[in-house]
Amino acid sequence: MKYKLIILLLFITSCAQNYSRVDIKKSFSSKGFAYIYNEKDYLDKIIKRKLDNKSLQIAHNKLRSGSLIKITNMKTNDSIILRNSKKFQYPEFYKIVITQPVAEEINLKEDLPLVEIMEVKKNKSFVAKKTKIFKEEEKIHNNAPVETVEINNISKKQKVKNKVTKDKFYIIIGEFYSKNSASVLKKRITQELKNFDSKKLYINPRESNKITLLSGPYRSINLMKNDYILLKNFGFEELDISINE
């Protein structure tokens, strides 16, 4: 599709990409929603493979089985490091599949399962705040074990204050070094993606002199999901989600 090629060229020449490929130079990282596994979804074939919902298990569709992944609750900063139990496909809107015990360990709510996931690479010293590695996960074979994982122990739990205001969600479409580049992409989406509400698109200056093209705000995860899928089908490989920009 010619539009996908145009967008790809545009990103290569002018965009600080908002996604990370799995390669030797850079660890995979992404922000979005976790899919909390349940048995019914497996039986209904929404999830391709079965997980043990009584154990600390995760599944990712890009990282190989045995890869170490740090999962962080973006609302509370609680996190956990686990080995990827299985690699299989799941609904594209989600960044990772986790079992209920994993959600409980990081205090992740089912109505707001917003997480950041990051691969812990081989030969890389990684400081993980409020993070655990569970022995039951170490049984999974991994040909590329992590040599150094440094853990910071925290004895006291921080109190999380409940916010009165409702959270707002945003889709991060791209990060740029010039406003003109962001404007070009915004215009193309507006012209070519007819089913997309262009009023949701806006350009926002961010830190480090980067310009961000966002879509939002969204009050409902389901409403955001529809636009997310439209943008993915338009040609974007990886789209991050942010909250309360």
SSE diagram, text form:
Elements lengths: L1 H13 E2 L12 E8 L2 H5 L14 E2 L8 E6 L5 E5 L10 E5 L1 H6 L8 E7 L5 E4 L19 E4 L16 E8 L2 H14 L8 E5 L5 E8 L2 H14 L5 E4 L2
Parallel strand pairs: 2-6, 8-9
Antiparallel strand pairs: 1-10, 2-7, 3-6, 4-5, 4-7, 10-12, 10-13, 11-12
Give a quick summary of the entry:
The protein has five helices and 13 strands. The chain is of the alpha+beta class.
Describe this structure in words.
Helix content is 21%, strand content 28%. It is built from five helices and 13 strands. The radius of gyration is 19 Å and the shape is globular. The protein has a six-stranded mixed sheet. It is an alpha+beta fold and 245 residues long. The protein has two domains: 97 residues, Alpha-Beta Plaits; 124 residues, Barwin-like endoglucanases.
**CATH first level of the largest domain:** Mainly Beta
Sequence stretches where pLDDT stays below 50 over 5 or more residues: 1-24, 124-131, 133-157
Evaluate the radius of gyration: 19 Å
What's the tally of helices? 5
Strand-residue proportion: 25-35%
Average pLDDT level: 78
Strand tally is: 13
The main β sheet shows up as: 6 strands, mixed
Shape label: globular
CATH topology of the largest domain: Barwin-like endoglucanases
Properties at a glance:
245 residues; alpha+beta; Alpha-Beta Plaits; Barwin-like endoglucanases; 2 domains; 5 helices; globular; disordered N terminus
